[in-house]
């Protein structure tokens, strides 16, 4: 062990009370930073995994669509298939698939009123980049099959209305009479929806729903669906709202294809029309979802959201491209970005104050120990040795603070996980509080206090090192 | 001392001027002198005559404004800061008026400190330090903290510390300045014994004539110049 380290350790021991306070303050700052970051990471991962099922890494929509439209009211993309092929041809390792989406509402037959809403995602069960992930999340029932006999060939019932709040007096459940001879469409529903409405949502249950068929949700279709599976993504709120249906089924419901059958009016019910059958055009969709090889998120400093967006835009100029990050910012009102900035900002301010404290404590120690420094110089200590004595003190303070911060964080995380704290969430759901530490943050917590305290210590260290020995000895004597 | 020996320290027209604001204080004026190996030299003179400045210059703790200082024939003005520090650590030993023991260290740790700074092995230093502490009759306090010792005991430790790197010269600034007369006598006897037994040159500063008479050579300073340089029987 070098003499500088020995003396530095002795100094730390001698001034342990004041240094302990500084170390604890830095450690708690880093603990708070690490915990909040780990919680944010957890939330981001939950939201990421879930929202990716809906949007993948990026979504391409028509130029007149905004982020809000992506939740079910997009204008139709007649050239969706061509756009998906362009992406895969021009951007290596990028995967693109067409999605058809719509807003739906379902109800209780007995009550004859709508009780809840859902966003229907028409998913390409073979080509969609998230199809396999969704399949893996099935917790009851089954996933769609390619040759499922109930995918197409139904008779949706169309209702033309003039504006919102003007739904015709068609009660839920009446469809039983209309569609009694047909197989229902297969759907997969989030497990939370089944928990909230156990009497109507569950594997094998059949219900009638209204689905918006036109952009901005002004026209509707009534269809009968059968729940063939339940999925669990990890985010109960999303699982309460997102239903999946094969894309071709939803194309049929929304009339994306050539109508070859006859239009018919249902007597006694109202001016409703039905088409059967429809030759579905698989090139038509509402959005194109894109799966990218790069990490597309950018809440974390290593994300590439902007670059991914620019790459896709360069292939399909004129189209609107939204990344997962755009959706998160939209959904959370940029709260996550602000929280991240605030976290770094508050940590930075506290660390700066701690750095100033380290500097002033060391300054006062040097003032008191000038004669000791002079003596060391008289005994042959070079300027570098004196400099290192104080630098090592800074290093040890930072190292101890970083390690303590990580240890306390781990203890808190384990306690929270062990206790299983849950948070009340919207739609009557509960969300587990969890933590995910990434290496970048952990390394930051370990290295940042060291860098800070070394920098803070370097100023008094240099001052001490540059003290002329004779002056140090003389000043020390005066200070006695 | 043999006049044919090379001087261990040689000062050649050394002048030291301190500047504070616009005021210049001439601490040493054109001082030339030679110190030979094994000499036991006292530097005396009234307060403010430049005794301590002279000692600091000889100990390479301060650089003269003009003139040259040769130690063991080396022109110290040519040495870099690093070389000066190394030279000071390996060839010079210091004893201060207020002992300058590091309070949080034990007696043994204080003694080995200059050796550790010089990069020597701790186990070897500890063996040697215990021997030195035995020689200065303070071994029984080796593991006590320095601050718990009396003034005389602390100065014994300081002498052992000054000897740890086998210096050629020990420079003592008022070594008895903070001690009572009995302790002062013990310390001066110890320094004289060290000079004799180890053959190390000792230069000490004192304003007290009864202490100064221990030196076998007495350099008297007045207003920054050497007023007298005499040899005595070392009292």
| Annotation field: number of helices of chain A | 15
Please tally the helical runs of chain B, counting DSSP H or I stretches of 4 or more residues.
7
Q: How confident is the prediction overall: mean pLDDT of chain A?
A: 81
Main sheet overview of chain B: 6 strands, mixed
Instruction: Tell me the series of helices and strands of chain A, N- to C-terminal.
Output: HHEHEEHEEHEHEEHEHEEEHEHHHHEEHH
Order of helices and strands of chain B: EEEHEEHEHHHEHEHEE
Rg of chain B, nearest Å: 17 Å
Q: What value does the average pLDDT of chain B take?
A: 88
Description of the structure:
The complex is a heterodimer of chains A (480) and B (235). Chain A has 480 residues and is α+β, with helices and mostly antiparallel strands. Helices cover 48% and strands 20% of the residues of chain A. Chain A is built from 15 helices and 15 strands. Chain A has a six-stranded mixed β-barrel. The longest helix of chain A has 40 residues, at 16-55. Chain A starts with a helix and ends with a helix. Residues 163-177 of chain A have low confidence and may be disordered. By secondary structure, chain B is an alpha/beta fold. In chain B, 34% of the residues lie in helices and 28% in strands. Chain B has seven helices and ten strands. Chain B has helices at residues 51-58, 81-91, 107-117, 122-135, 151-163, 181-198, 209-212, and strands spanning 9-20, 23-35, 40-44, 66-71, 74-75, 92-95, 169-173, 201-205, 217-222, 225-231. Chain B starts with 8 loop residues before the first strand and ends with a strand. Chains A and B meet through helix 1, helix 12 and helix 15 of A and helix 2 and helix 3 of B.
Summarize the structure.
Chain A is of the alpha+beta class. In chain A, 48% of the residues lie in helices and 20% in strands. Chain A is built from 15 helices and 15 strands.
Which characteristics define this entry?
heterodimer, A: 480 residues, alpha+beta, 6-stranded mixed barrel, two-stranded antiparallel sheet, 15 helices, 15 strands, 20% strand, elongated, B: alpha/beta, 10 strands, 28% strand
């Amino acid at each position: 062990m070098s003499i500088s380290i020995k003396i530095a350790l002795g100094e730390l021991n001698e001034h342990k009370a004041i240094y302990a306070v500084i170390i604890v303050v830095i450690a708690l700052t880093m603990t708070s930073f690490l915990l909040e970051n780990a919680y944010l990471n957890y939330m981001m991962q939950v939201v990421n995994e879930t929202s990716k099922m809906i949007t993948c890494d990026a979504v391409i929509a028509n130029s007149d669509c905004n982020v809000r439209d992506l939740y079910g009211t997009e204008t139709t993309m007649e050239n969706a298939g061509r756009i998906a092929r362009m992406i895969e041809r021009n951007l290596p390792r990028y995967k693109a698939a067409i999605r058809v989406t719509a807003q739906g509402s379902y109800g209780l037959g007995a009550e004859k009123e709508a009780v809840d809403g859902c966003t229907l995602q028409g998913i390409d069960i073979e080509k969609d980049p998230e199809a396999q992930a969704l399949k893996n999340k099935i917790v009851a029932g089954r996933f769609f099959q390619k040759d499922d006999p109930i995918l197409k060939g139904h008779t949706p019932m169309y209702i033309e209305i003039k504006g919102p709040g003007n739904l015709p007096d068609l009660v839920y459940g009446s469809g039983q009479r209309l569609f009694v001879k047909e197989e229902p469409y297969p759907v997969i529903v989030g497990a939370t929806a089944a928990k909230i409405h156990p009497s109507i949502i569950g594997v094998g249950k059949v219900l009638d729903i209204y689905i918006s068929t036109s952009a901005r949700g002004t026209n509707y279709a009534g269809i009968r669906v059968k729940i063939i599976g339940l999925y669990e993504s990890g985010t109960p709120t999303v699982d309460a709202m997102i239903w999946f249906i094969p894309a071709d089924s939803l194309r049929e419901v929304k009339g994306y294809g050539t109508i070859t059958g006859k239009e018919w009016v249902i007597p006694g019910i109202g001016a409703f029309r039905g088409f059967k059958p429809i030759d579905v055009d698989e090139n038509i969709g509402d959005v194109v979802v894109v799966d990218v090889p790069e990490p597309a998120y950018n809440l974390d400093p290593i994300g590439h959201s902007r670059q991914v967006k620019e790459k896709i835009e360069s292939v399909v100029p004129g189209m609107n491209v939204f990344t997962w990050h755009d959706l998160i910012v939209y959904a959370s009102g940029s709260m996550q970005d602000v929280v991240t900035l605030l976290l770094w900002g508050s940590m930075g301010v506290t660390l700066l104050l701690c750095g100033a404290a380290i500097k002033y404590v060391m300054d006062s120690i040097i003032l008191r120990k000038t004669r000791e420094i002079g003596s060391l110089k008289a005994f042959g200590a070079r300027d570098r040795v004196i400099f290192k004595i104080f630098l090592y003190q800074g290093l040890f303070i930072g190292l101890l603070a970083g390690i303590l911060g990580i240890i306390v964080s781990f203890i808190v995380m384990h306690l929270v996980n062990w206790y299983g704290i849950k948070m009340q969430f919207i739609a009557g759901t509960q969300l587990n509080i969890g933590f995910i530490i990434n290496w970048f943050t952990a390394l930051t917590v370990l290295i940042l206090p060291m860098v800070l305290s070394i920098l803070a210590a370097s100023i008094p260290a240099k001052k001490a090192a540059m003290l002329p020995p004779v002056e140090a000895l003389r000043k020390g004597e005066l200070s006695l | 001392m043999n006049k044919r020996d090379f001087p261990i320290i040689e000062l050649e027209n050394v002048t030291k001027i301190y500047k504070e604001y616009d005021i210049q204080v001439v601490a040493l004026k054109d001082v030339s002198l030679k110190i030979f190996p094994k000499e036991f030299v006292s530097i005396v003179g009234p307060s403010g005559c430049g005794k301590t400045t002279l000692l600091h210059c000889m100990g390479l703790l301060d650089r003269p404004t003009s003139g040259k200082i040769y130690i063991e024939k080396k022109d110290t003005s040519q040495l870099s800061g690093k070389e000066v520090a190394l030279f000071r650590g390996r060839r010079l030993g210091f004893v201060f008026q207020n002992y300058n023991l590091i309070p949080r260290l034990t007696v043994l740790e204080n003694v080995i400190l200059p050796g550790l700074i010089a990069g020597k092995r701790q186990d070897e230093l500890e063996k040697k330090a215990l021997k030195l502490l035995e020689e200065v009759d303070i071994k029984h306090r080796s593991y006590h903290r320095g601050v718990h010792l009396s003034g005389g005991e602390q100065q014994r430790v300081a002498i052992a510390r000054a000897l740890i790197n086998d210096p050629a010269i020990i420079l003592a600034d008022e070594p008895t300045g903070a001690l009572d007369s009995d302790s002062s006598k013990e310390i001066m006897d110890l320094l004289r014994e060290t000079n004799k037994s180890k053959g190390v040159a000792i230069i000490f500063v004192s304003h007290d004539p009864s202490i100064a008479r221990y030196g076998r050579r007495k350099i008297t300073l007045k207003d920054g110049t050497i007023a007298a340089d005499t040899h005595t029987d070392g009292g």
